[in-house]
Amino acid sequence: MVRTRLFFIFILLFTGISxxxxxxxxxxxxxxxxxxxxxxxxxxxxxxxxxxxVFAKAERAFYLxxxxxxxxQNDNEENEKGFEGEGKExxxxxxxxxxxxxxxxxxxxxxxxxxxxxxxxxxxxxxxxNHKAKNEK
Length: 137
Prior knowledge:
By secondary structure, the protein is an all-alpha fold. The chain folds into two domains: 1-30; 32-136, no CATH class. It is built from six helices and no strands. The relative contact order is 0.09.
């Protein structure tokens, strides 16, 4: 009886320690952007393609990235003339900048109570409910 209890205690301790080690390893390999990284790397590009993204985090990443960089000034130009200042790196993201601004305008109306963008399935479901309600009137 005592041996059985010791065996179970040993198993519980071993699995608990193994779980902590595994959790630590996965945490270090996480690809989630850190707040400081969003100013140096355009994570907002990946975020606007993620259907489960928190809208405010995507906006924050975008504005942190562009905070100290020149932005496109002319909607019709994606070349050097469309930027204030200089920077070929910024020219590379001119299309993505415009795409984000368009996404931001359309997505801000699709934010759920949890702050995430509604899934495409949920968007369709809401549209169908509204469409059905209009046809019943």
